[in-house]
Amino acid sequence: MGYALSLLDKSPIHDGETASTALKRTVALARQAEQWGFHRFWVAEHHDAPTLASSSPEVLIAFLLANTARIRVGSGGVMLQHYSPYKVAENFNVLAALGPGRVDLGVGKAPGGLPFSTRALQGVVPRTQKQDFSAQLAQLSAFLDKGLPADDPLAGVQATPRPAVTANRFLLGASVDSALLAASQGWDFVFASHLNGDETILQQTLEAYRKAAPGRAPLLAVGIVAAETDAEADRLAGNIQHFKVHVDNGQRVTVGSVEQAEEYARQTGAANYRIEKKTPNVLRGAAGTVSDQLDRLHDRYGIGEFIIDTPINDAAKRLRSIELLAQAQFAAAA
């Protein structure tokens, strides 16, 4: 096979279900993913989302560590803009102490929700007084390492406990700027093609990261819909689209529907906004077809690991999709 496969889960709550049911399914999927041979199992962060139960990845990661034995577990990702880098470092140091050598810290720049939930998370601190994202990431890196430089006002403060093995670090993004930021901080980089399937941007971003971070291999997040036949996979995938909304104050975010884009603009109070349709990279087909598509991406871009998102709105069919992929990939590898 030549590459590793990992899973991203958002704990979807289907019609008529409770959050408890969705989270139990996430735990069961993590245990099954470990048995099948997936390398990592990551959980996402979404706020004010009635159809998703994944608002606090750190809490869920702790439970997943306790219910698995070998698979790496992590965040895909923590939305750093909302939080103190010091507290994020503490959280993941605790997790790394609970699961030595098994914890991943994935960080994203997106809000993981609409403006009102962002305001609720961040309190009343004016945007002009907040650190920019690159400064937050640098501070987080310092707290995870040996601490802040001597000339920093907080020098000497340690993010305790100090685990024997710290969490592996990944920056999630879909632009050259994100890749260069990851490289400058010594972080691994995951290109989110499951949100932005533009192959020109993908190629430019991966090349920029490899040039800026020699010896480090970027990861690729992709959407996958596998089924018994190509036709069934096409039916399950439907016409998956994402939408990037640009508002007149310079803010922008990618959401899952035009309605969410319009609500984002309303919550920002923007008088003018523009909605841009984005086509995500969703590989679809019978398991063998999908495996061939992964092979081509591996050969073309030198990808050593794929993070798999499965955008199917039926719990049983989603599990079956992942199972079919596992059977095709890991049976071939064995």
The spatial strand order of the largest sheet comes to: 1-2-3-5-6-7-8-13
Distance between the termini: 9 Å
Estimated helix fraction? 40-55%
- Please outline the major beta sheet: 8 strands, parallel, barrel
Oligomer category: single chain
Secondary structure: number of strands: 13
Strand content: 15-25%
- H and E string: EHEHEEHEHHEHEHEHEEHEEHEH
Radius of gyration computed on alpha carbons: 19 Å
Total of helices: 11
List segments where confidence is low: pLDDT < 50 over at least 5 consecutive residues. Answer: none
- Described by the principal axes of the CA atoms, the overall outline is globular
- Structural class category: alpha/beta
Please state the average pLDDT score.
Answer: 91
